[in-house]
Amino acid sequence: EKPYKCDLCDYSAARKRSLAAHLRKHTGEKPYKCDICDYSAARKSCLDQHMTTHDDEALRV
User: Fold this and answer.
1) What is the reported pTM?
2) What would be the CATH architecture of the domain defined by 1-28?
3) Which of 3, 25, 32, 51 is 20 to 30 A from 45 in CA distance terms?
4) What is the DSSP string of 27-52?
5) DSSP characters for 1-31?
6) Are 32 and 42 in contact, with CB atoms under 8 Å apart?
7) Diameter of the chain by CA atoms?
8) How many CA within 13 A on the CB side of residue 56?
């Protein structure tokens, strides 16, 4: 069951936090900021993935 519905599209979610993350697609909000560069993301998992690029850079130096 997916009781949490987006008011702006047909998306629905089982968890309230999933709906909150989805709503950032509509608002453009990107609260997760990289401490090393100017990258920002709407989801923490995207920032975590981005951070691996900096790990790779450190290994090449």
Assistant:
1) 0.71
2) 2-Layer Sandwich (3.30)
3) 3
4) H----EE-SSSS-EESSHHHHHHHHH
5) ---EE-SSSS-EESSHHHHHHHHHHHH----
6) yes
7) 49
8) 5
Q: Hey, is 58 helix, strand or coil? A: helix
- pLDDT, residue 40, reads 98
Residue entry with tokens 């975590």? 48
Collect all residues with Cβ–Cβ distance below 8 Å to 16 and sequence separation of at least 6: 4
Residues of the chain with pLDDT under 70: 58-61
Q: Which two tokens stand for residue 19?
A: 């709906």
Instruction: Give the residue extent of every domain in the chain.
Output: 1-28, 31-61
